[in-house]
Amino acid sequence: MNPLIILAGPTATGKSETAVELAETLNTEIISADSMQVYKHFDIGTAKPSAELRARVKHHLIDSLEPHEEFTAHDFKQRAETIIHGLHQKSRIPVLAGGTGLYLKVLMENFECGEAADPELRNRIRKEIKLKGPEAMHAELVKVDPVGAERIKPTDPSRIERALTVFYQTGNPLSQYHEKDSHTFRNYDVHLFVLTMDRTRLYEAVNKRVDQMIKKGWLGEVRDLQDQGIPETCKPFQGIGYAQLNKVIKHQMDLEDAVEDIKRETRRYAKRQITWFKKSPGAQTIEVGPKETPRTLKTQILAKLSGTISAVAALSVLALFLVFPVAKSWAGQMQDAARYLKYKKPKAACEALKPLVSNEANTPQGIRAGFLMGRCLSKQKKYKEATTYFQKSLTALPELEDYTRLELAKINLALGSAKSAFEETSYLLQNFPQSRIIPQAEQLRARALHGLGQTEQAIFFLEEAIARLTGKKAESDFAQFIPELILQAGRLQETEKLPSRAYLNYRKIFVEHPNHESAKVAEKALKRIVRSQALKPPSLTERELNKRVSRLFKSARYKEALRELNAYKNEMGNRKLPVEWYFNMAKAYNGVRKRQLVVSILKEFIKIYPNHGKLQQARFKIGRTLWNLGHDGEAKKYFRKVLETTSKNSWKATSRFYLGRLHENSKQYDPAKKYYSELLAMGGSSSYLEKAAWRLGWIAFRTKNFGEGIKQFQKNIERWPGTIWTAKNLFWLAKLNELSGKKLEALKTFATLLEQFPYTYYGVRAEEKVILLKQELPANTVPRMIKTGFTSPGESPKGLNRSLTEQENFHYTRAITLSEMGLYDEARLEARKAVSTLRKNLSGVLWASDLYIKSRAYPEAMRVLYMYRDYKQPAGEKDLPVAFWKNFFPLAYFDLIKKPAAAYSVDPFFVDGLIRQESLFDDDIVSPAGARGLMQIMPETGRRLYSAGKGDTSYDPETLFDARVNVSLGIKFLGQLTERFGNKGMYLLISYNAGPHVLEKWLKRFAHIRDEDVFIESIPYPETRGYVKRVMRNYGIYRRLYSDAASRQENNRVF
């Protein structure tokens, strides 16, 4: 039988922490056996495992139900057995942890009364108990089940209700079912461990725990639950502590008396738990001594397990768990193999796959592993063995037939069988026109034809493919392969003595694809043809130059752009340079930080083209650059020139805004207000209107004219309701009220902001402020409607609301298959095609983002959700369901984050929030500046982090694309920043984005600013200011979505 570990014991003995230690060692998951923790919102009083523990190990049956839902021991058994079965399927030993004895009993033993109660009958009996009282109904129970009635107190309505329900529903007394209990463990090899503690120490632990719960804000939690409209009659409100604190809120009991009553009732409950578990057959006792820790308790449990024969038979030798984790699931093994293949380690990939292909060859997972094994062997040039696997895949894995035929074609070419390769690729292209590997098949077919001596035909097919894949109806997914096809055509043309045609293809790559890896090859080929043909190559046309330079800019290759722009100038001689040349030069100079030259080149443009349509654009760019250089006076002249000479309102609005900012920057507040007010008087739809209006309020705040600031922010809110700037105005209106001593008014405004814009940076900050102000203000002054957490979210659509078309299903099936095999790059392309024809309504974007996330196509998931969120407008965000936000803020790579985050004392939610901003969870991304991977680490920074303290010279910048390496190094860097600047989120983010030296400079410059919100608004770099806000928002939303309310109440500071 399959093993099942159960960790039980009285409350306050450390079950949760020990269970996590045990589950981590066994690489498994935890199932909660607690009748109260299963309910949402009831967090502090039910002692739910902390956010940190739940981040380390997955927990089931916590936060699973709404407070009004019924949940019986029968329900628990059904759900728990489903989870246990799933874990056994993954070769994992489930760990059950909890103190609800009845739940454990019905699961372990053949407990026949576990059938579900009739809800109508149960409600009727419940109403009778409420009407007649529990004592009267207990007397009725004595008549029908005297044996059972002896075991139940007349003051226990829940157990009376259960016993009467069983009798009236089945016709048999509950005690009769107890007598029938077989005490035979069902289906599982159960290992029950009961944590026990000296009675005196246990009671001390209980008392201490209750005090800690009160300190965490238990009373506030009960008040919040009432504010949310959760009825007092629901089951979790009847739990120990909630009933007493409810009376405190109603002024029916003093807090001090309530706390003592909670301690007394909890001690009694612990005593009952001890009695219950002592009777459990097969229980092994673990004494929790004064010096025991969760880790030492885990070691004791594993030691007891190591000698258990049944566990050894079920999963090899359990004693190995002391050293090795449980073997990975088949999906984990394949994903490891795919990762090794991606990073060119085929031998390691083969080793990862051997258990699957040898032990499960004919299972679905074994067949998929066989396809991967074929790739591994092919990479090692073991073509005969690889062919065997691929031939089997042709029939056993029909959903990937085109992928298999491509692999066979590669092998045939490698073995010199061009004819077979041509036949495979021709079959693929003819029978799978919707395939996502069409470009690769075209390349292989051309190589096969060349091998057959049919080079002209190969060139024809390539040129036809290039035209088709770049035409009006071309798919963007194929664009990445176009340079390779062009390069291949050029090479074949050279072999056919067609240098002029080859030259044109190489030139096309040089101009249109300068950042592709084939560009260097093309450039060398161009030089070779020029030398061999004694040609003078024609200069780039103006259009070609602009196209090439614009693409160089995308990869931040500013120095190369400057060289080519200057070469073009030299070729032009005394001829007039084109307009775009000046603006490209200005952009290139700005990219290499030569801002004074930006000013010079644009001044030259104005001199050459005094009446050109881009004149105002040039003046504006000069003004912005001079401001960045610190030449505010000169900058003002250019902005004034724009204002005085333009006839377009857009330029008038822009120049007025920047003139206001320049004066504000130099603390000339009156002229700043004048320009902002003039801009507002213009009206219209300029994006600068709301910015100017907010800055008027900000000036009032900075000059301590709080009354004027309050009026301005209120005016802004009335003029532009429901925009993203509404959230910012609400936040600073609340801040001004708070600083003016109007704390209750501030609380109400923060609460309004939280309710209307909960998923913005300011909404996240507002939640923190609401929590703090509710603690500061007297309880009787806080309106009951003031809430924290989620506003009432909308309902999630149930699926796509329609069947998939044949084409959608074709790509969907392949995306899922490839994802489960760890082939995420291929899965990503299939997922894109699968969702391309969907309507982008709520059900459509949720379905699409689900598929993208399964395919690790996180950027695509983000983009489709971004589009829908923008469609809803800021005011409509709050109505989107939680499922939308969990897809929008996924726990991506969380299994890779947890351990290094714990090692460097960095919150894993903070890391996920940072990665979301840095890379949108794209592990292959490279920034224009060259930063790589998930946490966007520069190669030299990676080298320093990788080699620090080890003298390791094996570092390869390419390893930064390995998610494990990137995350580990990025968290290490955050740990170093934490040691240097302390655990302050905004300091870490400024350092991470702009550099530690910049933070040190700003800490000196803004040493007088104590308010963190003011500090962030004062960050001089707009990019860094926005970055800090976005990551802080991400972090706050991650904690709100995935951590328990108790943790948020206790550690509510995103800062």
UniProtKB/TrEMBL annotation:
<feature type="site" description="Interaction with substrate tRNA">
    <location>
        <position position="122"/>
    </location>
</feature>
<dbReference type="Pfam" id="PF01715">
    <property type="entry name" value="IPPT"/>
</dbReference>
<comment type="similarity">
    <text>Belongs to the transglycosylase Slt family.</text>
</comment>
<keyword id="KW-0547">Nucleotide-binding</keyword>
<comment type="function">
    <text>Catalyzes the transfer of a dimethylallyl group onto the adenine at position 37 in tRNAs that read codons beginning with uridine, leading to the formation of N6-(dimethylallyl)adenosine (i(6)A).</text>
</comment>
<keyword id="KW-0067">ATP-binding</keyword>
<dbReference type="InterPro" id="IPR019734">
    <property type="entry name" value="TPR_rpt"/>
</dbReference>
<dbReference type="Pfam" id="PF01464">
    <property type="entry name" value="SLT"/>
</dbReference>
<keyword id="KW-0819">tRNA processing</keyword>
<dbReference type="InterPro" id="IPR027417">
    <property type="entry name" value="P-loop_NTPase"/>
</dbReference>
<dbReference type="Pfam" id="PF13181">
    <property type="entry name" value="TPR_8"/>
</dbReference>
<dbReference type="InterPro" id="IPR008258">
    <property type="entry name" value="Transglycosylase_SLT_dom_1"/>
</dbReference>
<keyword id="KW-0802">TPR repeat</keyword>
<dbReference type="InterPro" id="IPR023346">
    <property type="entry name" value="Lysozyme-like_dom_sf"/>
</dbReference>
<feature type="domain" description="Transglycosylase SLT">
    <location>
        <begin position="896"/>
        <end position="1008"/>
    </location>
</feature>
<feature type="binding site">
    <location>
        <begin position="11"/>
        <end position="16"/>
    </location>
    <ligand>
        <name>substrate</name>
    </ligand>
</feature>
<keyword id="KW-0808">Transferase</keyword>
<dbReference type="InterPro" id="IPR018022">
    <property type="entry name" value="IPT"/>
</dbReference>
<feature type="repeat" description="TPR">
    <location>
        <begin position="367"/>
        <end position="400"/>
    </location>
</feature>
<dbReference type="GO" id="GO:0008033">
    <property type="term" value="P:tRNA processing"/>
</dbReference>
<feature type="binding site">
    <location>
        <begin position="9"/>
        <end position="16"/>
    </location>
    <ligand>
        <name>ATP</name>
    </ligand>
</feature>
<dbReference type="Pfam" id="PF13174">
    <property type="entry name" value="TPR_6"/>
</dbReference>
<comment type="similarity">
    <text>Belongs to the IPP transferase family.</text>
</comment>
<comment type="subunit">
    <text>Monomer.</text>
</comment>
<keyword id="KW-0460">Magnesium</keyword>
<protein>
    <recommendedName>
        <fullName>tRNA dimethylallyltransferase</fullName>
        <ecNumber>2.5.1.75</ecNumber>
    </recommendedName>
</protein>
<feature type="site" description="Interaction with substrate tRNA">
    <location>
        <position position="100"/>
    </location>
</feature>
<dbReference type="GO" id="GO:0052381">
    <property type="term" value="F:tRNA dimethylallyltransferase activity"/>
</dbReference>
<feature type="region of interest" description="Interaction with substrate tRNA">
    <location>
        <begin position="34"/>
        <end position="37"/>
    </location>
</feature>
<dbReference type="GO" id="GO:0005524">
    <property type="term" value="F:ATP binding"/>
</dbReference>
<dbReference type="InterPro" id="IPR011990">
    <property type="entry name" value="TPR-like_helical_dom_sf"/>
</dbReference>
